[in-house]
Amino acid sequence: MEIKKDSTEDKILEAAKIVFVTKGMEGARMQEIADEAGINKALLHYYFRTKERLFEAIFSEIFKFAFPKLSRIILSDAGIVTKIEHFVDAYIDILIQHPFIPGFVLKELNRDPSGLFKLVVKLGLDPQPVFTYIQEAMDRGEIIQMNPKHLALNVVSMCIFPFAARPILSFLVFKDDKDALEAFYAERAEVIKKFVINAIVIKN
Amino acid sequence: MEIKKDSTEDKILEAAKIVFVTKGMEGARMQEIADEAGINKALLHYYFRTKERLFEAIFSEIFKFAFPKLSRIILSDAGIVTKIEHFVDAYIDILIQHPFIPGFVLKELNRDPSGLFKLVVKLGLDPQPVFTYIQEAMDRGEIIQMNPKHLALNVVSMCIFPFAARPILSFLVFKDDKDALEAFYAERAEVIKKFVINAIVIKN
DNA sequence: GTCTATATCATGATAGAC
DNA sequence: GTCTATCATGATATAGAC
């Protein structure tokens, strides 16, 4: 006897997440999602009218997952160095748990950015206060002077890119040694924090 | 009178590059490439037997474009700091001229890495000597001690990621102000160089 | 709500005339 | 070499039975 622990809709969402994340919007096949969910292809259209809508549901879910955690850190009242450290820790932690997200987001971003833009507007995401905050910390002499946008981008780049480029990193640098790659990712947070602090802390 | 300056094959290659780069392998349509080249769809199959082969031709061309320039710098006999500076300058220069490459490469990388792997093997690309070189410079006390792989990845991340994430950067940070975005990219090389040097040069 | 069967359409690829 | 016409396939979407 089989216990029905998930609704059909949940099963579809879970299956779609797996397929979309590995194959992307274009590569994903409705048949494959149906198979993965153990249901019929027509049911996908019953629950989510089109492939596009199903995709958007998954995309939003993934994006919304990371947002609140990072937002909380950014809005905290810690000093800028501590805040950057917490941000890097949290970001790398999320990425280690979901290493597929960067590749997926960048892929879809270059395919059709409008979906992400709608989401960004809907979430009321605006980085300007972050830049203003960084500038103020610089003016207070907490860190060296530089364009806040460049600083923020440097930090985010070093966090995200290694995961977005995972296949080439794995193959080229680690000769497909999964354990070595995982160990390397586990070191990233500490490395980035030290690197950034060295770069921006004022030297006497 | 129309002067035939390009062969049909060249026209196809140029058209395919435009379409593949913007749409990717999956998104690209043979019809669109044919239209872009001003020829018939059947001719594509006459010159390049399949879509896959046409794609590979473009992908190789793009990848091979950047390789020799960067390779020359890496193999030069400058000191490590100078070498990093030259590398960043050259890399950002290439990316400003071809800002689509990172998004394209990452997209195809996450779709099917095997093509890039074959290319990497064919070109005999091996980063190990670079890591060894960095380690030796560290041992000579030219820069601080850290895992050479992390250092290399930090530099490459800060160079590539801003271009890979161009759509979101453009929309979220620069409110679709193209001029502001271009100006920002133009500053990247100087910013990255200063940032890296601050991070790795030994303080007294 | 779930399924079978099918309509409709788009695309990569090919055949064959010129 | 280039074109028109067409095929074969696979995918989205819908109609309608249960």
What order do the helices and strands come in, and which of them pair?
Two copies of one chain form a homodimer.
Chain A: H1 8-27, H2 30-37, H3 41-47, H4 51-74, H5 80-97, H6 101-111, H7 114-123, H8 128-139, H9 148-164, H10 166-173, H11 178-200
Chain B binds a DNA duplex (18 and 18 nucleotides) through residues 8, 29-31, 39-47, 49-51.
Tell me the name of the CATH homologous superfamily of the largest domain in chain A: Tetracycline Repressor, domain 2
**Termini of chain A, distance in Å?**
72 Å
Largest sheet of chain A: none
Would you count the extended β strands of chain A for me? 0
User: What's the Cα radius of gyration of chain A?
Assistant: 20 Å
How would you classify the helix and strand content of chain A by structural class? mainly alpha
